[in-house]
Amino acid sequence: MTLASPSPTATDADHLVVTDPVDGSIATTTPRSTPEDVENAVARARAAAPAWARTAPAERGALLHAAAAHLRAHAQELADLNTRETGKVPGDALGGVEAGIGTLVQYAELGPVHRGEALRGQFGAADWSVPHPRGVVLALTPWNDPVAVALGILGAAIVTGNTVVHKGSERCPGTIARLNALLAEVLPDGVLVGVDGDASTGEALLQQDGIDVYAHVGSTATGDRLTEVAATTRAHVIRENGGNDAVVVDADVDPTWAAAQVALGAFANTGQICTSVERVYVHRDLAEEFTAALVAEAERRTASPAAEFGPLVDDRLRRTVQSHVDDAVQRGATVRTGGVTPGGTGTFYPATVLTDCADEMLVMTEETFGPIAPVRVVESFDEGLRLAAADRYGLAATVLTGDTGNALRAAAELPVGTVKVNAVFGGAPGGSAQPRGASGAGFGYGPHLLDEMTTTTVVHLEPAPARTTSGGTR
């Protein structure tokens, strides 16, 4: 089993060549790391690890502050690269870079105050715990919000005293290569080493000795491969993987408002978000009005300029999205709007609403990762909650309800890392969640990620008895 990941358009064995999903032109050409580059990257990070671990946390935090300022000066450059490679609309691309920089600043502040605990032991002794860096972190990051996600993992790893080898997705190698280069201009040599390549490069990294942590955001297949390898290498695994997030729409909410929430969740970034809405369970009492409003929301987005509703990242993903829609139609679903791959240049796909959806359809059982809102009518909130919970993924879920009791039940019963009530996106800064099932394991962000990046030593100290001599106590 190898690292499963789609490949970009590659015309040169020595380079990663990415085409612009808007017009099909060449977006970037990035040198592919050689096997020697991979080996040297891990060696450099391993060599730098002891000194970086001994660096004072305050100094590490100060360097991250400097790195954030350096990235801020290049934010538009990174956003433009992201847009050219993945089709992310310009405003969202810049927002993602700015969010990543903000996360880096948060970790710069949190790292120096990350501490152990005093423990209560016997009288006359002292007990405490001390966090230590794990060593070398292999960071494997995705394409759909590449700067924001990468800086969360990199910031937490670096500020806690680890060194990092970072490989981003081959769908945005130019963006990640530039991000790594900018960070390396501020950090000491070997603290962050970038590697550029596809699934074979990722597999080569897994064959290297001396990696202590696998930190991954991306597909479930790749996360499963990391877990498999870690059984032998004993590396610590942090993985946030695919999701199949559900929304349950209760009978007591405004259907137009609910449709706007679902549309935001299903169609933002053209559905290419780990926590996108993938399944919709709506109460029969408002299903008709809700669906009409959802169709209107979808059609408004499809008619928007490309700067507001962008393309899918590439044709491979678009074919997958279309195959899920085709499967649903063949099994009895009704296309209310969209559902057909458009002609012309680029990899655009319309915002799509499907009704008459059944539980066995791919749009209900798998992560489609496109602008698809499959709607299933339910007879009660209880039925919607039960169906939302019956899934192998466990990333997040949303309930739209005016009933506090139903909201509390959802929080208690849904087997997911994050339960959102009356808002498909949002949350307090630093909120840490543990995905479950096929969606991964470990805290992938927030303050708890500092704990994931460290090991803990418990110290027990008792005074030694005074030395005695033949002349008495000295």
Task: Kindly describe this structure.
The chain is an alpha/beta fold and 474 residues long. It folds into two domains: 17-116 and 132-241, 3-Layer(aba) Sandwich (Aldehyde Dehydrogenase, Chain A, domain 1), CATH 3.40.605; 245-421, Aldehyde Dehydrogenase, Chain A, domain 2. The protein contains 15 helices and 22 strands. The strands form six sheets. It has a seven-stranded mixed sheet, with helices on both faces. The protein has a six-stranded mixed sheet with strand order 7-6-5-8-9-19, with helices on both faces.
Give a quick precis of the structure.
This protein has 15 helices and 22 strands. With 474 residues, it is of the alpha/beta class. This is Aldehyde dehydrogenase family protein.
Helix tally? Answer: 15
Number of domains: 2
Q: Strands across the major sheet, in which order?
A: 12-13-14-11-10-16-17
Radius of gyration: 24 Å
Strand composition percent: 15-25%
Alpha-carbon distance between the termini? 67 Å
CATH homologous superfamily placement of the largest domain: Aldehyde Dehydrogenase, Chain A, domain 1
Structural class by helix and strand composition: alpha/beta
Protein name: Aldehyde dehydrogenase family protein
Organism: Curtobacterium citri
InterPro entries: Ald_DH/histidinol_DH, Ald_DH_C, Ald_DH_N, Aldehyde_DH_dom, Aldehyde_DH_Superfamily
Keywords: Oxidoreductase
